[in-house]
Amino acid sequence: MSVWSCIAVISIALTDTTSCAFQSTTTVRQSSRTPTATSLHGIMEAVESLAAEAADTWSIQATPFLEPAYASKIEEKFQDRGDVLCLRVFGGRRLSPEPDNNTVKPGEGRRSRFVIAHADLGMDAMTAEEEYCTVVRCENVNVASSNTFPNALASIGVHLDNVGDIVIEDSNTVCFVVTPEVTKQCLRLLSKELVGTGVSLSVVDSHEFMPHGEMQEMKLSRVLERQMERKKLDAGYVQFG
User: pLDDT digit string (tens) for 66-90?
Assistant: First the structure.
């Protein structure tokens, strides 16, 4: 998985090893490469680099969406930092799952990302979630007949590091979390990859709780996985984990 963060003038800092992952009204620049990390140790080092950048430049950084095994370790390491705030967000106003529990209960999330901000910038968890997570509801989709949502999202060029939890609410309704940067892409293109009459997609209000349901696994078909890897290499991505 690739890791990226972004920097806008004054409040967001840019390094030559990160790419944009922050929605801002200020001008944002994007770099061509991302930190390298292929293990928990490597991921920790990459996040530590983002934290150091946030602390040194009074900036806000963001990681990709991560699996719980990685995210819980990051949360544990950074919870007592005094120089930066490390806010774990899931989207849909959900909470962290209980440690060592593979069952996600109502009100809990699975995949999450971290918003890392200088301690004096006043960032809070609710603001971080509103600005760094978007929940999209897909209605009138035939879930049983459609491609899986990870495959459908990859087919329209959305990398899975931009995707949080995908929750099947019922046989015709699915809610999923994405980064704000790919929201318009999902709203415009995703219905073409799904089966159903009158498939519609809309952004859920940030104050609305995400429904509980079955979560789809974040797995791609082998063909799509190879295609996405080629696109990452062409774009200058470096593996994050």
Answer: 999 999 999 999 988 899 999 999 9
Tell me: domain 132-221, CATH 3.30.360.10, correct? Answer: no
Q: Which is it for the CA torsion 134, 139, 141, 144, positive or negative?
A: positive
Of the CA atoms within 13 Å of residue 27, those in its CB half-sphere come to 2
The ranges assigned to domains in the chain are: 7-131, 132-221
Cα–Cα nearest to 12, from 117, 107, 89: 117
Asked if pLDDT for residue 146 goes beyond 90, the answer is yes
> Measured between alpha carbons, how far is 133 from 135 in angstroms, rounded to an integer?
7
Phi-psi region of 76 (alpha: psi -120 to 50; beta: other; left: phi over 0): alpha
Is 92 in a helix, a strand, or coil?
A: coil
Global pTM value: 0.79
